[in-house]
Amino acid sequence: LALFIIYQLNNIANPILLVQAKEDAYNFITKTVNTSVSKSIENLDINSLFIISYDQNGEIISIDFDSIIVNRLLTDVALDIENNMSSIDEPIYDVPFGVVFKNSFLIDLGPNIPVKLKLVGSIVNNIDTKITNYGINNALIETTINLEINQLIMLPITSKNVKINLSIPIAMKLIQGLVPN
Question: Distance (Å, rounded) from C-alpha 146 to C-alpha 59?
C-alpha cells in the first residue's frame, strides 16, 4: 500500500514539478545568455558588423556582414554560455514540494526539491537580420542572435530534455539613402 501511494504521488507530482522546473530553467538560461551576449558585444563596434558598399554617386549598393567578426561573436557567445553551464555542479534552484498541490496556502510547505541543469549537446546559434523601410529612402537593420540550447532538467526522481530558443537583439543600424529629387 505504501509503494502504491508513493507511485501515485510520483505520477501526480512529476508533471507539475517539471512544468515549474522548465519555467525556472528558462529564466535561468535567459539570464545566462543575456549576460554572455552583453559581455561579448561590450567591446564590439556595432558598425564593424556591417560592410556597406557604395557606388560612385554615393548610393548604397549592398550591405553585408563582416563574416570574421560575426563568427567571432557567435563563437564567443557559445563558448561563454557553455562555460557557464558546464561549471554548474550544484542544483541551481529548489522547487518547494507544495507546488504540487496547486494551492497558494500550501505552496511553501514540504521539503524543497533540488533541480539541476545540464547542457546536452551543443549550442546552435546564428545571426538573423530584419530590414524595414524607415522614412523616405532609409532602412532600419535589426540584428539578432538566435540561440537553441538543449538542456537536461534533472529532478531527484525524473529528468527531461528541454529545448530553449532565444532571440537576443544585438544591433540596430539606420542606413540613410539618398533622397530622390
Answer: 31
Of 35, 15, 145, 17, give the one whose Cα is nearest residue 85: 35
Query: Distances from the Cα of 73 to the Cαs of 40, 45, 126, 169, in angstroms?
Result: 7, 11, 10, 13
What is the Cβ-side half-sphere exposure of residue 91, based on CA atoms within 13 angstroms? 12
Q: Which residues fall within 8 angstroms of residue 159, CB to CB, at 6 or more apart?
A: 152, 153
Q: Which pTM does this prediction carry?
A: 0.75
Per residue in 82-114, pLDDT (tens digit) is 888 877 767 777 888 787 777 778 788 878 888
DSSP 8-state class, residue 3: H
> Rg of the chain over CA atoms, in angstroms?
23
Q: Are strands 60-65 and 50-54 parallel, antiparallel or unpaired?
A: antiparallel
DSSP letters of 72-131? HHHHHHHHHHHHHHHT--S-SEEEEGGGGGT-TTTTT-SPEEEEEEEEEEEEEEEEEEEE
With a CB cutoff of 8 Å and minimum separation 6, the contacts of 112 are 94, 95, 96, 97
Going by their DSSP bridges, the two strands 93-96 and 112-133 should be labelled as antiparallel
**Distance between CA atoms of 116 and 153, rounded to whole angstroms?**
6
